[in-house]
Amino acid sequence: MDVNLILQMIMAAVLAAIIYTIIGIAPGTDETATIAPVILALVLMGIQPIVVLTFFMSAIVANKLTDSVPVAVAGVPGGVMAAPMVEHAVTLKKYGKPDVSIRKMASGSVIGTFVAVPVSLLLANALIPLSDVIKEYADPLFFIGAVILALMSKNRWIALVSIIPFAILIQSLRHLYWGLGTVPEDTNVFVSFFLGITIGPVILTLFELLNNDKRDRLERFGLKSIVLRKRKKTKEFPNPFKILTKSEIGTSALASFIGSITFIMSPVGMTSLLGELFSSRIKDPVKKASRAISSMDALTNATYIAGTLIPLIALGIPLSPVAIGPGNALFNAPPVFNLDHNLHHILSTADFIWATIIGAVVALGMTYFVVVKYSQEICAFVFKWVPHEAILGLFFGLVLLLSYMDGGWLNIGGVFLIGLVSGFLHRLGIHYGVQFMVLYAAPWLISKIAGF
User: Fold this and answer.
1) Residue 59 has pLDDT above 80, yes or no
2) Torsion angle in degrees (nearest 10) through CA of 285, 291, 292, 294
3) How far apart are CA 91 and CA 83, in angstroms?
4) Which of 368, 357, 316 is nearest to 338 (CA)?
5) Coil, strand, or helix at residue 224?
6) Cα 252 from chain centre
7) What's CA 321's distance to the chain center, in Å?
8) DSSP string, 107-125
9) Could you please report the per-residue DSSP string of 53-77?
10) Which residues cross the membrane (predicted)?
11) Closest to 28 (Cα-Cα) out of 101, 79, 66, 74
């Protein structure tokens, strides 16, 4: 690895840390919708794979560090993964400790990163001898994953029932394109369908705004006032091992370890489950909330790192909700990457280690310090000047462009259809992970059903 390449990796990590520090703090932005299209664009631009991976690792660490800030300051989650922390962050805010909430969550993220990186690399290399067996059964494993995640969804029975109809919709559109000659028969339209799922809630909301009756019934709001409590600035570099108590460090590390080895499970489900489990016996509300949010934030970072690295290094197929979601373009981004030719096949173990360490260290070094020291100033700026609608609008435009590139004008209509159904399913409480697993399992599942 030459010096020029290392400099490119550092620059990519710095750029990702800056971008996703801002995006993470913007309220209501979803991790998959904001990270996946950018990674896909970088891959399609021909950026070196190791540089793309470095950018991704820095992005997820920075995003997971910052999406907890609006939770602590205003009780508004920056992203889906921060939603389980709202109740505990509001408790600390009620007791006048939003600064404690920010410091505990950010420090938990640091612990999660420290634990997840070595555990992920070790577990990934341990699974390599089993990779051929796992890949041989990849299609049924995707279906089993969809079933498992459905059972962990908010409305499990609706999620289970939706699996086959959603698979039929996906394969029906593909066969329509093949029949009309929109795409060659040996080409599976995938990327744009994937992006249609990620942007589904936005598409559904935009369609609802075209309904006059529904639009007229919407509640109108004026300018929203958010009061930020002033706190003392920290001059020295904050030490997460001094901010967290010994018990909080222990539960954060344990949660990170469990989250890393259960990388195939739903990150949101595991975050809620373990966060509540580790704090359930604590009576003092401040200590209980502190224990819960530090453990939860550690777990979110760990699940994102492990959910990307383990499938990428050991398997080469996206066999986790994180890999299928934000990290999907690292596995499958035609015509550059596919399941037989992606980062798994291109990069060596040393490349994965270097990309992970550079991305994680740069993001931690920049974002952790900034979050702990300047979180209120950044939050005030983002709340005032960076509406999340503008960010989502940018990604929505990118989705339309990539949909046209994938299958022409007809595919834009197909992506709208996928988005409408996906947005409706998401509103019913069906997790993104279920829908992504179905997207991968659809060809195998429909062929099996048709063969009966």
Assistant:
1) yes
2) 140
3) 14
4) 316
5) coil
6) 20
7) 8
8) HHHHHHHHHHHHHHHHHHH
9) HHHHHHHHHHHHHHTTHHHHHHS--
10) 6-26, 38-62, 68-86, 106-128, 157-177, 189-210, 298-317, 352-371, 378-402, 408-425
11) 79
Angle at 46 between CA 40 and CA 49, to 5 degrees: 75
**DSSP bridge partners of 338:** 341
- Chain segment 76-92, per-residue pLDDT in tens: 666 666 666 777 777 87
Are 190 and 332 a contacting pair, CB within 8 Å? yes
Cα-flanking dihedrals φ and ψ of residue 341, to 5°?
-155, 95
What is the rounded average pLDDT for all residues in the chain? 83
Residue 81 one-letter amino acid = M
What is the token pair recorded at 121? 């690399």
Q: What is the crossing angle of helices 31-44 and 49-66, to 10°? A: 160
What is the Cα–Cα distance from 253 to 244, expressed in whole angstroms? 12
The DSSP 8-state label assigned to residue 330 in this structure reads G
d(CA 270, CA 326): 18
What is the amino acid identity at position 166?
A: F
Question: How is residue 103 written in tokens?
Answer: 């410091």
pLDDT tens-digit profile of 13-33?
A: 999 999 988 887 776 566 777
> Which of 424, 379, 451 is closest to 24 using CA atoms?
379
Cα 435 to Cα 200: distance, rounded to the nearest angstrom: 11
pLDDT at 50: 94
In this prediction, residues 352-381 reach a mean pLDDT of 83
The answer to whether residues 16 and 55 touch, using CB atoms and an 8 Å cutoff, is yes
Nearest to 259 by CA among 224, 314, 296: 296
Cα dihedral: 205, 80, 17, 111 (round 10): 180
For residue 439, give both structure tokens.
Answer: 């997207």
The DSSP annotation for 357-382 comes to HHHHHHHIIIIIHHHHHHHHHHHHHH
392-396 CB contacts, 8 Å cutoff, 24+ apart: 392/28, 392/29, 392/33, 392/199, 392/202, 395/33, 395/34, 395/37, 395/199, 396/199, 396/202, 396/203
Question: How many C-beta neighbours within 10 Å does residue 325 have?
Answer: 27
- Each domain of the chain, given as residue ranges in start order, spans 3-216+228-451
What is the C-alpha to C-alpha distance for residues 323 and 349, in angstroms, rounded to an integer? 18
Residue 143: other Cβ atoms inside 10 A: 20
**In angstroms, rounded to a whole number, what is the distance separating the alpha carbons of residues 279 and 252?**
11
Hey, what are 402's tokens? Answer: 């990539």
Rounded CA separation 32/363 (Å): 18
